């Protein structure tokens, strides 16, 4: 089976080299270094033997700290004197002392400003945290500066919640409870976050819009750009990230009530929520000094093509980003190296005369860190052809976060996924002879079907525009934390200067065999999608997931039995639709078993049905208030972009409904969303029926 | 050439019979008679030999007069006594005296109410008419009842304009200037509108939404329905239509200034605009008495299928509506008969062993008169499969309005259109031996290319959802008035009780040979689209039209040279895009000439490019404020639904821009719309390029 066993014997060596090569310098989006790297990748991909490779530029809104006027947070006394300032940069790791252009920790797209006020601690800054503050603890954040710990949800959601609560600034910090594993040393002696490390990151609420100035359209030279006031998703308040050494200073003398126990992180302080400070310093305040600039900047995607031999107008895409906050040892290089090696492997096969049935597209995205900008602009630019021609998109962001798990759009045929996993060897010591599937299953076998857990795709990486906006079947696969046993968020050094090549080499994947395994999985998936005469997509799997999701959203609604009855809310139409889809999907696959695969047109027709099924779940009207999230079955949660929500329209309508101002309206919206979901599932089912009524 | 010369020898006889059969009874949407007719059509289509025929119901909002409380307009004196009332019904034409269920003239979806106030004459009620009233004549319609003559624009736009002007009711009347041809007698002695006749019609502003309660989704049993307050497009004021005999009473004693000469119709009165009355009756007012009810009602489309032999998953649709305001002699029966005879002809061919390459769908739409509801609901219901599979939609509304002209989406290959027209004989007396093309050319040869004029598709008939929302290449062909020589609007008896079978038989098409010619043209188009191995769609034609439209919108902008310069407005990006499209289209057709037509997959691929080109011109974000008008090149005019506007986004941004409140904002919007248009044209061009970069 060519596309699984493709020639990647040299991969392990190359991943190793490449990882080093890609991480010598910072590759911030918009920087000369990142353009140089783009050119290098283009040239190498051409050498590897792709049919064509191009740099594709867009001019998007980025955001950088002011080099001469640094960002920091102060404690100021009653005279206005700054008696404590947070650090301006992270201590640089050994071996990188001479590197210039390390961008200090900052929150990209923060508003400028120097707000000064009392501090309120808001735990993770989640919707439920603000509810607790306002409804149970009686603390009003309006006009205050809030401080939230990183973790649990996307930082942009924290900022949005702070704005909704009326805060005039928000400080984000990494608490050891969330960014240090027990018994592990801080880098460089271990892989925990040092106290001086801080998490960079954008704080946008784009909801899939891409470049904030050109929502819905690619940011080309001639494209109209809105004013900054009309831009999508920019926070209106200053935001800044700090490490836990600095956080202690801000938090240790606060006033106000004690927080609930589960709000206390691992900082060695006596926790108070605020507002204000209680010791002799109770006239002290916190001042944010933020001078970050928004700036339209040119970015570059690298796009490589292998023309399909039989169906050149069917595209399978493997894309991952290239830009990094600093060295990007894990994010994105562990992913970019995988793409690079897959291109190399494909090139080798081509030199032996191979050419895939369908067209393969490889993408090195720029400016993912600034809001998935490179991938979204390209998706906007080519929406029409992608709509018509894209079979699947496989994402290649960070390959390793530690323990083995996998996130996949469940539409990617599980048996096919499994067959890929069955053909790859476990890279773990002591698991010689074990397949990757067995290794995975051993670590995470929680499902009722005695199979490893496959997660819903959320967002926070470049598949978003492809999957959620355009309805292209998408998948991702990587080593990630064990849902059940590992409590910390992402990985400790995430988006800090300590994401180096060495941290991977010393701790995450010393043999680079995990990277190799991920490369084989991602490669296996795209080669299977590009080469199988009948697309390896499984509608019955989709039906099973729909059933699960329908049950789960119904259970959520059932928390309001009286209201359900009073407003005559019924989920019958949705359950009928899911049942209809299930029957139709089963029939479809039965007919598929009888397919005469020598009939090119007949194969094309069922493949069109398979390909367009995911498209059928999208609705051009989008979700309420989120026009670029068009998938009716999956969307990033409105409360945490990183998480995927199923039946998001219904979910959002039900959210906090007991506190709605107008119950009639609120339950009407639930009914409307059920109706839309039911219709969409029926409409998707129709695409799988025999093509003539 | 089978699909042009298909067996319609019997057509002329059948059209004649059918026309009589379909017009014996009123067939108002939602009535038992119209359901009975649907069943009859279903049964006959099955007999003719279609593969399947189904009745497809939807439950949509319709609107009927209150049977026990009729609508009328009064003049009331200062005591409140009604001293004149308009007639409650039209005099019934000879031979139809015993017919029950003739719905009296009314404005469907009018608000209920009995407003009473002074009257203001607003000419045609166009945007420019209200501008003239307010800006030049200093007349304020706020709080008044306005009276507008029918004609020039869609009546719903008149009502919208009246609402925007603050009127609290609007009376619509048919002026002889617009509804009587010189030297022609009123029906039954001629084809002019009698003084007691009035034009029914809906007064919605749906902007393509379909059923007002379920915008974007099919009105099925389980579908969520909005409240009437949230419904799309319902007028908030009473509206009522009257004939010119009644209009004279309302208009003859009005006060206020004299109107401009071109506002005077042909009523034999001394014109005044109002408000109020000047003679001894100056305390008189006008009272509207409107009791029309909105009501969710079941409607039925009839949908018939012929499975394609080679590509069953490619659909060619011929659709026309079945519902009529009363007898529908012209509208819709002259179209419905054509569909019926095409089905019969196709059935005959099938019995001889023929089966089209692609699937043919025949549709008899319901409730077109109530806002294109049947066709739009079906489009919404099947949007996913239509998006994937529909090759083209040919509309079959009224076939004859008198003189020969043709309206076509210009994307339908002109040479192919011409070849159809060349194969049909002229039905005109004295043109024996002449082709239909020659006959057409003789009457209307105004274009610079020495070819007959092909109009832009506007709206007002059932192609709207298919073309403007879904981006399916669409066409219509019928006998219509000569743009240059005939001044009256539509045809005199339009939507009156006088649209009988007899008016067609006596005046419009005594031999029924014009109907036959239209049947051959519409049939020729769908058979060509369904049977040609390579789709007969011409991208170079499209490019030429784009050039024309770009020049024309540029000329419009040039009326503001100073503002253009001040706001740096450039059309360069649009002209570059059109040039790019032109080059790409030419290359595409050159490659097409080299196509190996024996390679099924290769043919499928270019056909996909041809089919999806029209789709590529649509934008899921829609036009500003009109989410269901998604075509960036064509939309119904915002000021007259009947008319097609090219580059409608730019056009609307430029409209009346000299009176914009905020010039900066207004010109920014022009720039944004130019950018969207340029991008869309480039994106469409991309779909025609070789499929791999």
From TrEMBL, chains A, B:
The domain of life for this entry's organism is Eukaryota
User: What are the recorded Gene Ontology BP terms?
Assistant: proteolysis
Location comes to:
Cell membrane
Q: Which residues form a coiled coil?
A: none
Pfam families according to UniProt: PA (PF02225), Peptidase_M28 (PF04389), TFR_dimer (PF04253)
From the UniProt record, list the reaction(s) this protein catalyses.
Release of an unsubstituted, C-terminal glutamyl residue, typically from Ac-Asp-Glu or folylpoly-gamma-glutamates
Q: How does it sit in the membrane?
A: Single-pass type II membrane protein
What region holds the Transferrin receptor-like dimerisation domain? 569-689
> InterPro entries recorded for this chain?
PA_dom_sf, PA_domain, Peptidase_M28, Peptidase_M28B, TFR-like_dimer_dom, TFR-like_dimer_dom_sf
Q: Which key words tag this protein in UniProt? A: Calcium, Carboxypeptidase, Cell membrane, Dipeptidase, Glycoprotein, Hydrolase, Membrane, Metal-binding, Metalloprotease, Multifunctional enzyme, Phosphoprotein, Protease, Signal-anchor, Transmembrane, Transmembrane helix, Zinc
Which residue range or ranges hold the Peptidase M28 domain? 301-401
Residue ranges occupied by any PA domain in the UniProt entry: 118-204
Entry EC no(s): 3.4.17.21
One example of the protein's molecular function in GO is:
metallocarboxypeptidase activity
Q: Listed GO cellular component terms? A: plasma membrane
**Family under the similarity heading:** Belongs to the peptidase M28 family. M28B subfamily.
Query: What's its job?
Result: Also exhibits a dipeptidyl-peptidase IV type activity. In vitro, cleaves Gly-Pro-AMC.
Oligomer status and interactors: Homodimer.
Identification of the protein by name:
Glutamate carboxypeptidase 2
Origin organism of this chain?
A: Cyprinus carpio carpio
